[in-house]
Amino acid sequence: TAQHKKPNIVISLTSFLIKEQTKEMKFTTAATADGLRLLTSLLVIGSAASMSSYRERRLANVTVAPENDNTQFHHFLAHNMTRTCSADNHATPFNNQIRGVNLGSWMVLEPWITPSMFYQFLGGDETNTAMDMYSFCEILGPEEGNKQLRRHWETWVTEELIEELAQSGAVNSLRLPVGDWMYKPYGPYIGCTDGALDYVDDLLDWAHARGLTVLFDIHGVKGSQNGFDNSGQSQDFEWTSALNTEPAGLVTFQHWGIRSAAWMGEFDRETIEYTSTNYENIEHALETIQEIVNMYKGHPAVLGLEPVNEPWQYTPLDELKQYYWEGYLIVKKDAPYWKYIMHDSFRFDVETWGGFMAGCPDRALDTHIYQAWQDPASRISFYNNACGQKSAIAKMEAAFGPVVVGEWSLATDNCAMWLNGFNDNLSGFPRLPCKFVKCADPYMGTEQPGTPVDPGKPMQVRFVNCLHRQIYTFTFYLTDLPTALDTSILQGPYGTGMSGPSFGLCPVDRDWMKERNIETGTDWMRAPPEAPRHLDATDEVMTALARKKISAFSGIGHGFYFWNFRTELDTPQWSYMLALERGWISKGNLNDDRILHACHKEDEGLFVCMSTRQTESSTKGGMKYALGVEGVNSTYVDSLSGDALFDAADIVFSKFWEEHKGEGATCDFGGAAQLQEFNKTYDDDDDYYKDDDAHYFTKEEARTSLLILTTFGILVGGCFGFLMAMAFNEKFSNKVSRSSVVRRVTRRFTSHSGSNVRYTEIPEHQY
Fold it and tell me: TM spans, by residue (predicted)?
């Protein structure tokens, strides 16, 4: 339409005038000054026109029946100026909790999850080292890259694994990270990721056949939304090899100190602000949303969409909210029954998100809660932190609406190899020494280049003494390196931190130790990373922590997705399937009563499901739903109104939630209810009270001492009782004295201590 073309004409005219004015600027200084002023004006006009074009095109594409600033949908009315909705009729009420897992590193490679895909780059230099999805395709090229990716797609997620997850009874949904390049290829992705969508189609069919839902998560976007490798491309990466004068051959790089994210525009690290907005990248992401909707809107397995994963905390908030809003309208136009789940941009506070998209159906906020980056602490501290999330989630649900914990794990340290990047680490991490295990055999088969990892090479032990051919096994700073370097043993390139395979071993999470001091609980921090079997408390601690986290994330919010469904290395702290195998997470945990009350000790208050007291229609709908499930006649609900209706709803909602939350029920009822926290603590004599932690704290020395004292007490008590009986019970005394055992003892009782005194047996007739 003319409305669409007008801004584009302005941009084209602007471009033409800039070119013509640039020619004139070559001739005179005056012309140059005038040209600069005109150029500045035209750039401002062009930028405004670009933004106008971007927004008008999006809103025009999703508008059904525009009225002023409103967009009419089947279930609600969207207000574009305020980014809110009215006539909230949920297309798909969020009445059941999500208990899901992420299918990480399948479509978006992450070196720490599937290191066998990246071992081939160990020992490489600046021209042949890949550290993320983008550089993987760039270095290998489309043909070899696609060959390796197809082998990976075929083996990392299989129908058998999906069947195992479904049969566990602990999973009802899958979060699928995808890249925008899969739907709108660009750069090195062209040709490299061909065929990916065929595997996505298979996954949807596998999930549907087993009653599982799938949430599409746009995990990587053009320009990177956070600068992490999990976005597909690490941003502001810099090779520093040229800065190393000694020794020759050492390949180094830096990333964390200069990380940036270019999806939203150009970021100034000095001011910590964006100096421009990249509307082209945003448009590309919105078009990706449209492509995903077009492809899968009719598939019954699809739960919904997450428009972007983990935009970093410096992302301009207004631009991000506008992107979320426009993506939401795209989804609701063609896929009205999808959920729309938005990440909090690492800003999980009610001031930021409270009231955003108020009244809009089927949207939720995603937050990621990890303990792996916390400082080392006692298990009690980790327990309290896990259960303490209840209150934060409840407050956000009251201010915004449904909350889903889209990522969490059981890791309490930063030890997993390459967790913070290929051959790199954050400054100061890991905080404690890590356990090492044999690096896993490649899951896709030994034909994968670079596998298995070389057992004869150290990690970041970086040189060989050329005189004695001695391999040094300590770590040192670059300035300590000798000028002679045997590069054949290197497993670089090396970042500013340490993490990588060493002699065929890979670092994984530490073990937990049984504690001697229940008050401090810090023995595990001073202990070796691998606990002796008789002192290993990892199973107990992880089981308790898992129950508390699941209780907090699903008992209060609308559910969770564990990160990840599996890992190549033996790290059950990051692998849901291994955690199930170890018994840390119960199979069939949707009905596990131990999870329901796992935070009993840590809870500071009670949570009650109450009516939001907003609209009577949604309240009545929620009540009818709850009563219908219970098989109770709900005809009386229609006669209620005002406070009488809301008071009755409080009773129905709270009763239903208390009885069914263990089965996965949420306090939602189509948006008519929310959890409220009351300052009332549990009593220790509650019939379901159980101290989950008491048996996890084991004083080994105290246990031994207790055993000795008990044995000693029994012996002393027995002897004392015997003597008392001999002294005061003549019949018992005579019987003992006449026993054959005592007679033999007394007969042999003579002194050999050097005294001349002899003891002889008294004849029986003289008693």
Answer: 706-728
- DSSP per-residue string spanning 541-563: HHHHHHHHHHHHHHHTSSEEEES
Q: Out of 621, 651, 680, pick the residue that ends a domain.
A: 680
Contact 492, 126 (CB under 8 A): no
User: Is 538 within a domain?
Assistant: no
pLDDT in tens, 185-197: 999 999 999 999 9
Positive or negative, the CA dihedral 414, 504, 120, 108 is negative
425 assigned to some structural domain: yes
Query: Is residue 542 within 8 Å of residue 582, measured between CB atoms?
Result: yes
Which runs of consecutive H residues, i.e. helices, occur in 586-641? 593-596, 616-630
d(CA 675, CA 391): 10
The span from the CA of 589 to the CA of 168, in Å, is: 9
- Number of Cβ within 10 Å of residue 728's Cβ equals 9
Q: In this structure, are 377 and 331 located in the same domain? A: yes
Structural domains of the chain, count: 4
Residue 532, classified by CB atoms within 10 Å of its CB into exposed (0-12), middle (13-18) or buried (19+), is exposed
Both tokens of 721, joined, read: 């009782």
Q: Which pair of structure tokens corresponds to residue 450?
A: 């670079």
Q: Give the type of residue at 480.
A: D
Cβ(382)–Cβ(411) under 8 Å?
no
Cα distances (Å, whole numbers) of residue 675 to 396, 599, 630, 752: 10, 16, 21, 84
Q: Which two tokens stand for residue 532?
A: 């002796």
Residues 89, 171, single domain; the answer is: yes
Beta strand 363-369 pairing with 339-343 = parallel
Q: Are 274 and 267 in contact (CB under 8 A)?
A: yes
Question: Which tokens go with 660?
Answer: 């069914």
pTM across the whole model:
0.78
**Model confidence pLDDT, tens digit, residues 398-443:** 999 999 999 999 999 999 999 999 988 888 889 999 999 999 999 9
Same domain for 108 and 43: no
Cis peptide before 7 (omega within 30 of 0): no
Q: 430 preceded by cis ω (within 30°)? A: yes
What residues form DSSP beta bridges with 77?
72, 86
- Residue with token string 């931190």: 497
Q: Nearest Cα to 421, choosing from 157, 234, 154?
A: 234
User: In DSSP terms, which residues pair with 173 in a beta bridge?
Assistant: 100, 213
CA distance 24 to 17: 11
Sole residue written with tokens 């909210």: 321
**For residue 523, what are the CA distances in angstroms to 334, 345, 533, 699?**
56, 36, 15, 11
Ramachandran region, residue 521 (left: φ > 0; alpha: ψ -120 to 50; beta: rest): left
pLDDT recorded at residue 494? 83
Q: Which domain holds residue 49?
A: 2-62
